[in-house]
Amino acid sequence: MALKTKVKEYREKEGLKQSELAELVHARRETIVHLENGRYNPSLKLAMDIAKVFHVSVEDLFTFTED
């Protein structure tokens, strides 16, 4: 299974930089970079914190796809 994310799409729609989103969710910018590139699976807390920033559900941001 692979994690597919819409974090970059939502972040750009809100006009946020990666560093700004990272600050809002108390993470490093590099974490956001890796998350957007599909090289990092977030913790449940991080996923919920990001969803809260965008006022969407975790399921709106993240889905699992079959390889």
Question: Can you tell me about this structure?
Answer:
By secondary structure, the chain is mostly helical. The protein contains five helices and two strands. It has a two-stranded antiparallel sheet with strand order 1-2. Helix 2 crosses helix 3. The chain is globular. The N and C termini lie close together (6 Å). 13% of the residues are buried. The mean pLDDT is 94.
Q: Which structural traits does this protein have?
A:
67 residues; mainly alpha; 57% helix
Helix/strand layout:
Blueprint: E1 2-5, H1 7-14, H2 18-24, H3 29-36, H4 44-54, H5 58-61, E2 62-65
Antiparallel strand pairs: 1-2
- Summarize the biggest pleated sheet: 2 strands, antiparallel
What's the total number of strands?
2
Strand content: 5-15%
Q: Low-confidence parts lasting 5 or more residues at pLDDT below 50?
A: none
Alpha carbon gyration radius: 11 Å
Distance separating the two termini: 6 Å
Give the fraction of residues assigned to helices: 55-70%
H and E string = EHHHHHE
Overall pLDDT level: 94
Count helical runs. Answer: 5
Structural class: mainly alpha
Shape: globular
Strand order of the largest sheet: 1-2
Q: What is the compact description of this entry?
A:
With 67 residues, this protein is mainly alpha-helical. The chain has 5 helices and 2 strands, in the order βαααααβ. The model has no long low-confidence stretch (mean pLDDT 94).
